[in-house]
Amino acid sequence: MYKLLRSVLFFFDAEKVHYFTTGMLRFVLSVPGGKLLFKQLYCVEDPRLKREVFGLTFNNPVGLAAGFDKNAKMYNDLAYCGFGFIEIGTLTPKGQPGNEKPRLFRLKQDEAIVNRMGFNNDGVEIAVEALKKRKTKLIIGGNIGKNKITPNEEADSDYLTAFHVLHPYVDYFVVNVSSPNTPNLRALQEKEPLMKLLQSLKDENTTKSVQKPILLKIAPDLTNEQLDDIIEIVQTTKIDGVIATNTTIERGNLKSPKELVEKIGAGGVSGKPLTNRSTEVIRYLSEKSGKSFPIIGVGGIHTPEDAREKLNAGAALIQIYTGFIYEGPGLVKRINKAILKEMN
Q1: How many domains are there within the chain?
Q2: Which positions are annotated as binding substrate (predicted)?
Q3: N or C terminus: which one in the chain shows less Cβ crowding within 10 Å?
Q4: The one catalytic residue among 30, 157, 178, 179
Q5: How far apart are the C-alpha atoms of 198 and 210, rounded to whole Å?
Q6: What CATH number has the domain bearing residue 239?
Q7: pLDDT tens sequence across 9-63
Q8: Residue of 159, 175, 95, 176 whose CA lies nearest to 129
Q9: Do 177 and 197 touch, CB atoms closer than 8 A?
């Protein structure tokens, strides 16, 4: 049923379809019986799925990655799609429009998406107003970034501002320095500026009455030497974990026509072309660190087998995004059912 609907929706602009489908979800759930129907269709409730990670209890290990619910408008509704946690954002201190449209594209042959959204969001203060209307008990993560106009030398201030404002309203934080769509942002993944940024956030966290877990989201395009630096930084700053990985700027393993890829232009690729590389990064971080910190695995999860590979490589939790778009909410249920089946 979903794939039939998808075949129609994929004729239209990707960003417009995103807003259309989230609006339809909100409408269906507002109809009497809609929430019960979605719970029966997509939610798997079993205590064996629970995970204790960085001090939090997740109902199941399958989350929704940042980028889908940028402004925290949909998390209450998305909770009925079976997720164990939802990550909002990326949020910046001030609202910004992001990059020019069109900026979201499908590579259907690759079951992939190219995006150059550019941290489009309404700003952290607007998101907080939405989070004050929280109805779900689901774990909510807050993904934070810097504004486009903020130079890297002043980036710490942006992250600290977003962290401070969002702190009472989310369960964990993700420091996003790995999006390829904000100029020079990935330079913050270098050892010295990253160490400084994370230490600043850790110090700010200690001033709070309740400290929240802080995770770092990294790019899949890092070398092994850079991944070694990431391990050292995590262990030195004692942040709570890593999300591996963000989208890739690589285009080498695509099946789509070269002309189409060149026409689309810049942006990060997500979906199946990222499956193997993200798993490699997870395995490398897990093995080289001696499993000294939790990893959330994300990138190219379209099947229960993809999810199993991430978990077996060392991920404590997983997130989906492009797989959710291509496979529908049924993917969450299939993954959770497969995890339970392995336990029997």
Answers
A1: 1
A2: 70, 115-119, 176, 181, 246-247
A3: C
A4: 179
A5: 18
A6: 3.20.20.70
A7: 999 999 999 999 999 999 999 999 999 999 999 999 999 999 999 999 999 999 9
A8: 95
A9: yes
